[in-house]
Each structure stands twice: as C-alpha cells, then as structure tokens.
Amino acid sequence: MMRLQPLKLGIVAPGLKDWSAAVPVLRGERPFRDEPLVVPSPVGLKPNERRRTTLATRLALEAARQATADTGLAPAELLSVFASSDGDMELIDSMCRALYRDHGPPSPTVFQSSVHNAVAGYWSIAEGCRQASTSVAAGDGSFAAGLLEAATQAGVAARPVLLVAFDVPAPALLHPHRAFDCAFACALLLAPGASLGDGPALTLALRVQNGLKADTPMRDGALEVMRVGNPAARSLPLLAAIAGADTALVRLPYWPDLELEARLEPGR
User: Fold this and answer.
1) How far apart, in whole angstroms, are the C-alpha atoms of residue 90 and residue 97?
2) 199, 209 in Cβ contact below 8 A?
3) Domains along the chain?
4) Is the pTM for the entire model greater than 0.90?
5) Interval 108-121: pLDDT, tens
6) Which residues on adjacent β-strands are paired with residue 164?
C-alpha cells in the first residue's frame, strides 16, 4: 500500500474551468452545465513558444498552474509525472499527413512537439524546472498508472510530486479509432505519507479484478459521460471524493485484470 496527501488540485474541462468552480459540482451541490471549454494562454512561456502550444499543452499547463499556485512550494523544485493515453493526436495526425504528402521528414518543430514528453517539456520551460519528470501512457488506465508513478516517486524521494493527466479528442480520421467525447485535464499536488498532517489521507492499493469490471462511476449522468468519454477523466470519481472531504473508496481502471483502489480518509 502507498499513502499520500493531496495538497492542491487543478482541473480544466467543459463546464469545469478550475478547481474552485468544480468543487460544488463534484459534491452535487450545483448541477453540472456543459459549457464551452475555455483554456487560458500558458504563462511563463515566451511568445514564440506560446504560439506553438497546442490544446493538449495548454490544458495540461493550466491544470498544473492551478495545482501549484499559492502552495508555498516552488514549481521549479517539484518532481512531476505527466500521464496521457494518446498524447497530442492532432500533431501526430499532422506529422503523418506531411510524411504521406511530402515524402520527407516533418519539420523539427512539429516532430519535437509530437513526442510524448513534449508537454512535460513545455511545463519545465514555463516554470524553469530542472527536476526529474516522467511521462507515462497506459491506454484507458493512464490516470491510474500516473497516480501509481507519482506515489512511488513521492515515497522514494520523500518530497511532493506533481501529477498531471490530460487527453484531447482526435482529429476526424483518427476519431473513429480513439473516440474521446471532450478534452480534459487535471492535476494533483501530492505529498508523501511521511509528511501527512491534518489534510486528507489517500491510500493506494492494486487489486485483481477477476474479470469483473468495478470502476467507480459518477452519480451525475453528464459527469459519467465525461468520465467514460476521456481516459484522463477516469480521475473524476477520485476528484469528487477529495472535493467531498469524506471517507470514500474509489476504484480506478488500470490494466485488463487490475484496478487501482484509492481509499480516502478525511483530515482531522
């Protein structure tokens, strides 16, 4: 088992522009409204770098900004984990089209932005962070994989770790093969169990599913559609549990026969 303390969170999704706006919705105190997605331009990047950022990068950097602002911790000193099922499919599609059309290598700018850790690279540039960063992908279990990785690093290094999960819809030709309903990103600033104070405690454990799917659903039907429609949004039940600040058991999809069990206990 692994123990963590969520210090601060961020979220960017249609109808959930930031964590403070999302909390009453996740608690069931306010109905969810499917409003247009609004993603601010990333801060900390030079104008040329900002112009090159895609939706995936802007989503991830905004969620990370929310989770690290006003925490007393310098983002430049944080270890980080970025989790995404498919990365930036818009860029991948663009690169494949160029290869087919021009029969030559893609531009260096497109190629460097298409690699799976490009978003983590933009975040490190924006924050001036030279600490270790890991980018993971595990299909629909990418959020659980990222959470496990972040928990492991927090425990080994005995220091806070930033986890950012994001996924964006694919362009038209790829959408039938990876059909995401909406764009979604979230970020969790996680402290290791050794530093647990008065805040909520999060305990993680891997469980064998024995062929039975037991993912924790969202009570709100529209949020459940979001959860199943984007791999990064598989985080929603855990985010709702943290927002509710109550004892909760959340089961997150990980691998075909494995699930990640997250038990939340409220702070003292």
Assistant:
1) 11
2) no
3) 2-198+215-246 (3.40.47.10)
4) yes
5) 777 777 788 889 99
6) 82, 187
